[in-house]
Design goal:
mainly beta, Methylamine Dehydrogenase, Chain H, disordered N terminus
């Protein structure tokens, strides 16, 4: 049976009832247009009541950044309810421990416990006695010693929780000199007396002895250059670890650490978000692949892969003796009878939250505003002329988000995190995302060469699209990526500036691309370079023709725009600078905020607008003075002024127009 609403059906155009919000600057206000995209991104899930068999419910964590939400959903009936955690930012980790549902959250390092019948979940705040950040709780489970353990980011700390006494112990990162961003992604307690801990960005699979506290590395040396160990599980008497990317299953002896077998996945990637995505049952290991949403299984005895059912997505967990619950990236839930390998229940979800944080904004065709929302690959388009918002949902089946967009000849070119994928969208054609020739948006391909995020993009004077990228977790060396709309080929120039990521780009409209860099690599990498650079790319020769230090010791130069003819304005950390491109010299500098400036827009009104993670500012074009317009924790680098002179910003999940009287 098929239940529910097709995804996006309720969001194909809506008209705005906007409100006005004052700012700190007289004569400036916000017109609140509303959330750009409200579709909840699905992260981890567990089966709530497996004894119910085909009628079991699942609990699904979601990535709504503010006022976290977990969803309770019954595929056989479509019944839906929400677990709300208003003091939390996003819900990620989840475990079902004796009927208690434990949820770990983003940013504030909290753990919640809920069971059916509770009006609201209990909250446990992780202590920060040493000023630890502990922003994400990636995993939580119970050890055989009766204590609960949580894995965190960015320090990679292992936390031990005694919920009866309220005593929490930070056991630390279990690594000397850990990287600045270190992920304890998963905790696996299924062997007595020990935990197996899965780490990224410096990849590790640690055995942790619950009695002695001693650790032992289980990840074979040949796999330590991978991006991460996603998670581990028990399969019969073996330890299995999913190592990425590309995806490899490692079968290990849980006592000696001996590698029994390494199995490369010959399909598209295994879904990484859900830690139940590998499901053992009757000698098989079930898993789903992202690009084709196909449920497969690995037969260890014969060392072969077998197709189970197409379109079912990835596993969530078992109910009864034979029902495997699965979900696709677009929220289509299935119950698969493993006796027959047939789908016996299928239900399309359409979980709507308060709004996903706006991650990027750009100008679309006809002076429209196009945007992407955080971590759900959500796309939206706002037409200022008609005051209509089009929010169709997910733009691709790949995990992550739209990092940046560039419009050329009425088509939109999208750069996606993760894996620096690129796609093209034609607003004149019906929305139908995918990878085949009739898809819209249509996937063009990936940059490869270990690239991951896409901080900026610009249309070049040669009719090509130029994107700056940064590498995967733990890696250094970004790239200048060139997408040719005529051939749809992707050309990658890695390490244009050695060991640096490419962060911001502008075109002179004639021949050259001006670009800036950051010494920062992928999350968790250790910096090699000493200071960020500005470089000039010749689009006719395809070569770098200049590399300059504009601000000594700058960590990153993110914002970049033209301030005047022949003069660029850039943002080196929190300092704005004016740069004469002919003289290759800095004319003036001004510090405008305590945090890094991530976006600059030179406006038609004579001001330069800047955005940090916490504030919106504006500066006179000669850097003679600046004003703080607004302070809000929901900013990032989402700001655009259209060719019609209207300025829009993303403020948390809400799209705002800056009204200038």
């Amino acid at each position: 049976m098929l239940l529910g609403l097709s995804p996006g059906a309720s969001r194909w155009g809506r008209w705005i009832a906007s409100s006005t919000i004052p700012t700190a600057v007289e004569g400036l206000s916000f017109r609140d247009i509303g959330p750009g995209n409200r579709q909840l991104e699905l992260i981890n899930a567990v089966v709530l009541d497996p004894e119910a068999g085909i009628d079991a419910r699942i609990v699904q964590t979601t990535a709504q950044e503010k006022n976290a939400i977990a969803v309770v959903f019954q595929p056989s009936t479509g019944k839906t309810s929400y677990i709300r955690m208003p003091e939390a930012d996003g819900a990620r980790a989840i475990s079902n421990i004796d009927g208690d549902i434990f949820i770990g959250t983003y940013l504030k390092g909290q753990v919640f416990r809920w069971r059916p019948g509770m009006n609201e979940p209990e909250r446990y705040d992780l202590p920060r006695v040493g000023k630890e950040r502990q922003e994400f709780v990636f995993s939580i489970d119970r050890g055989s010693d009766g204590f609960y353990y949580a894995g965190t980011w960015p320090e990679g700390d292992l936390m031990r929780l005694d919920l009866n006494s309220g005593q929490y112990t930070n056991l630390g990162a279990l690594k000397e000199n850990p990287p600045r961003e270190y992920y304890l992604r998963h905790i696996m307690p299924d062997f007595d007396g020990k935990l197996f801990l899965s780490y990224a960005t410096e990849t590790s699979l640690l055995e942790y002895d619950l009695q002695s506290g001693e650790t032992r590395e289980f990840l074979p040396e040949a796999f330590r250059d991978k991006q991460w160990v996603n998670h581990a599980l028990r399969f019969d008497d073996m330890l299995v670890a999913l190592v990425s990317a590309p995806d490899v299953l490692l079968f290990l002896n849980p006592e000696s650490g001996e590698l029994i077998r390494a199995v490369e996945i010959p399909f598209s990637r295994i879904w990484q978000h859900n830690y139940k995505t590998l499901q053992p049952h009757n000698g098989f290991l079930y898993f789903g692949t992202t690009e084709d949403e196909t449920l497969r299984r690995y037969n260890f005895a014969s060392d072969t892969f077998e197709l189970v059912v197409a379109g079912a997505g990835h596993p969530i967990g078992m109910a009864g003796d034979k029902y495997l619950f699965t979900v696709t990236t677009r929220g289509l839930y299935s119950v698969v009878d493993l006796d027959t390998n047939e789908i016996v229940v299928q239900s399309q979800s359409d979980f709507q939250g308060d709004g996903m944080v706006i991650h990027t904004l750009a100008e679309g065709p006809n002076a429209s505003v196009i945007g992407g929302s955080y971590i759900n690959q959500g796309f939206f388009r706002y037409d200022p002329a008609t005051d209509e918002l089009f929010s169709p949902g997910r733009s691709t089946s790949h995990g992550g988000q739209i990092d940046n967009m560039v419009t050329l000849d009425d088509k939109v070119y999208l750069g996606h995190y993760t894996k620096a994928w690129f796609s093209v969208y034609d607003p004149a054609i019906s929305w139908n995302p995918g990878s085949d020739s009739s898809s819209n948006p249509r996937v063009l391909g990936a940059a490869k060469e270990t690239q991951d995020r896409v901080p900026d993009g610009v249309a070049g004077p040669d009719g090509k699209i130029y994107f700056g990228t940064k590498p995967e977790y733990g890696k250094t060396g970004g790239a200048l990526v060139v997408v040719d709309p005529a051939t749809e080929k992707i050309e990658v120039h890695r390490n244009v500036v050695d060991e640096q990521s490419v962060y911001a780009l502008v075109s002179d409209g004639e021949r050259y691309i001006y670009a800036t860099t950051s010494i920062r690599g992928g999350l968790g990498s250790r910096e090699v370079a000493k200071e960020s650079k500005l470089f000039v790319w010749d689009t006719e020769t395809g070569q770098k023709v200049r590399e300059s230090t504009v601000i000594p010791d700058a960590y990153e130069i993110w914002g970049l725009d033209w301030a005047d003819e022949g003069v660029l304005v850039g943002a080196a950390d929190s300092v704005l600078f004016l740069y004469d491109v002919e003289a290759d010299s800095v004319l003036k500098m001004l510090q405008v905020a305590p945090e890094e400036v991530k976006k600059l827009v030179t406006s038609q009104d004579g001001w330069i607008y800047g955005m940090t993670e916490e504030r919106l500012v504006r500066v006179k074009k000669d850097l003679s003075r600046f004003q703080t317009i607004d302070v809000h924790e929901g900013y990032w680098d989402s700001m655009v002024e259209t060719s019609a002179g209207r300025l829009f910003v993303g403020r948390g999940e809400r799209l705002m127009e800056v009204i200038r009287n």
